[in-house]
Amino acid sequence: MKFTSLHTLSLSLLTTAAFADGAFYGDPPDARHPWAIHDMNRAQPMRVEAGSFSSQDKPGTPPSDATILFGGNPNELEKWQSDKQPAEPTKWEVKDGVLQCVPGSGYIRTKEEFADCQLHIEWSAPSKVEGNSQGRGNSGVFLMGQVEVQVLDNDNNPTYPDGFASSIYGINPPLVNPLRAAGAWQTYDIIFRRPIFKDGKELDAGYITVFVNGVLTQDHTPLEGGGGHMKRSSPRAFPDKGPLKLQDHGNPVRYRNIWYRALPKRAIEGGDTSHMSEAATTTKRAEIAKTIREDAMKMEGTAKMLRLFESICYTENTEAKNNALLMLGSFITEVKALPTDKIESQKGEILRITKALRYLTKFKFVANDLEAKKDLEAIIKAKDWEPKKK
């Protein structure tokens, strides 16, 4: 078997990002983790352009991947409808770029439906303070139309704690009260995950995390069925998707800068996460190994050999392993045939392959007594190439 010229191999290795940082480096995949530690085979994070923060005078801008539900344009009122059956146009109003509740007109909901999300919404209670407890600046943000994050003017206005502003209504009070004075703009940033049920069994209770004006007020709070008024809720399945609802509670509360970002699936739903079920991990590892082997077929020389070796760290494959071992044998034959004064030029290649073989033997992907590894180790020792410990 004629091996590709050793002098062309370094360049081909540089074209494979996996060898630059991650391959044969961190702990390998295991039964519940489909990726190695520091795995370059994982997808790079998608680029999202960050938005800007709001001021009292001006709303900020959303991130580039956000879906805007209301950004100040009167035409965006078309994205909303009255929460009635059958639906009808909302009577809420847009004034000076602000969406305002018209008391007595009823709840409104988005025409669009969605589920797990990062939701950003800003609201302002009337600057003219009237009423007390639940009668002052009352509204609500209903995720999927199912569970309410309370909106209320609680600036010097006590009420029952599980109905306080940013409470999960009827379930959990906020950790603290970071509200600004009545009439000022308040910012809610909400992370929402719906409950997951299968065959009537709860797999994930669902939860909400809330920041108010940048301060954490709900820390991964379980939904407990979604809460409600006066009656204790119990765990239940939610629909796959639902609208965002805003409550008319008889107060002219204003809203602006409403947007959301859909969140990826959790592991329990089959999402690609670091820690997965054993079945999902097995499937994902097989997918990764297949992709690596397909990538190896586009390569030559030690780049191809190392990529094939890398694939067996995810899923055992006799053909891939035997082909890689055959190529390794050809490499060793060529190295041994080199004149003594030429071996130095292959130092980087020999160290790179030896590093891979040390990893593969350590984690028992290949036999520990591999003759090729012994040959390379002997060369490294004779040439004193072992990196010195600092």
Describe the structure.
By secondary structure, this protein is of the alpha+beta class. It folds into 2 domains: 6-44 and 274-383, no CATH class; 67-266, Exo-inulinase, domain 1 (Jelly Rolls). Helices cover 24% and strands 19% of the residues. The chain is built from 8 helices and 15 strands. The chain has helices spanning 9-14, 17-21, 278-296, 301-311, 318-337, 340-343, 347-362, 371-383; strands at 67-70, 80-82, 93-95, 98-100, 108-110, 117-124, 139-143, 147-151, 186-193, 196-198, 201-204, 207-212, 215-222, 245-246, 254-262. The strands form 3 sheets. Strands 1, 3, 4, 6, 9, 12, 13 and 15 form an 8-stranded antiparallel β-sheet that branches. Strands 2-5-14-7-8 form a 5-stranded antiparallel β-sheet, with no helix packed on it. α4 packs antiparallel against α5 and α7 packs across α8. It starts with 8 loop residues before the first helix and ends in a 7-residue tail after the last helix. The model is unreliable at 4-20 (pLDDT under 50).
Topology, please?
Layout: H1 9-14, H2 17-21, E1 67-70, E2 80-82, E3 93-95, E4 98-100, E5 108-110, E6 117-124, E7 139-143, E8 147-151, E9 186-193, E10 196-198, E11 201-204, E12 207-212, E13 215-222, E14 245-246, E15 254-262, H3 278-296, H4 301-311, H5 318-337, H6 340-343, H7 347-362, H8 371-383
Helix pairs in contact: 3-4, 4-5, 7-8
